[in-house]
Amino acid sequence: MNQSLNQEQLNQIIAEVQTVQLRQEAELDHQQVREILQDLNLPPELLDEALIQIRRKQALQVQERRHKLQGFPLL
Q1: Integer Cα distance of 56 and 64 in angstroms
Q2: pLDDT band at 69, cuts 50/70/90?
Q3: Among 2, 35, 62, 71, which is least packed by CB within 10 angstroms?
């Protein structure tokens, strides 16, 4: 990819790379979360189930927002 960039594009790239870097630094990997759970005397083997439940709740919230915007009640 040998593409020339102007100053505005360069600034946008720098800002985006900084955003991605900050997001990555704020995220914990699976092993780190397991260790935190152990430190809190919580069973780390339940991590995957907890993640599934969180994703289900998030999906339900998205669905509820869509239905609210469309004016449909959620059954």
Answers
A1: 12
A2: confident
A3: 2
